[in-house]
Amino acid sequence: MSAVNRIEEGEIDQAQAVLDAFGGNALAALRSVIADAEFLCEQLETASLYLSSGIVRGWLPKFERDH
Questions:
Q1: Cα(32)–Cα(26) distance, integer angstroms
Q2: Distance from C-alpha of 5 to C-alpha of 8, rounded to nearest angstrom
Q3: How far apart are CA 4 and CA 13, in angstroms?
Q4: 48, CA 20 to 30 Å: which among 1, 25, 29, 40?
Q5: Are 21 and 29 spatial neighbours (Cβ–Cβ below 8 Å)?
Q6: pTM of the prediction?
C-alpha cells in the first residue's frame, strides 16, 4: 500500500470522514472539496498580495501542489 493510502491505527481517515459527512454521496462530497479548495486558493492569492516579502522572510506561496 502506498504512503498516500496508508492510515495508521487511531488516525482518522479524512476521505472517509468527508464521504460520511455527505451521507455517502461521493459527488456532493467531491463538489464540496473542490469548492473549498477554490476558496482557499483565492484567499491565499489575496493574502499574498497584501503581505510583503519582509514579513514572511522571502517565502512565496505555491498556487499549484507538487505531485
A1: 10
A2: 10
A3: 11
A4: 29
A5: yes
A6: 0.67
pLDDT (tens digit per residue) in 2-56: 555 676 777 889 999 999 999 999 999 999 999 999 999 999 888 888 877 667 6
- CA nearest neighbour of 48 among 62, 34, 35, 36: 62
Name the residue among 47, 27, 4 with its Cα closest to residue 63.
47
CB-based contacts of 33, cutoff 8 Å, min separation 6: 18
Quote the cell numbers at residue 7. 492510515
- Whether the CB-CB separation of 44 and 65 falls below 8 Å is answered with no
Buried b (16+ CB within 10 A) or exposed e, 33-60: eeeeeeeeeeeeeeeeeeeeeeeeeeee
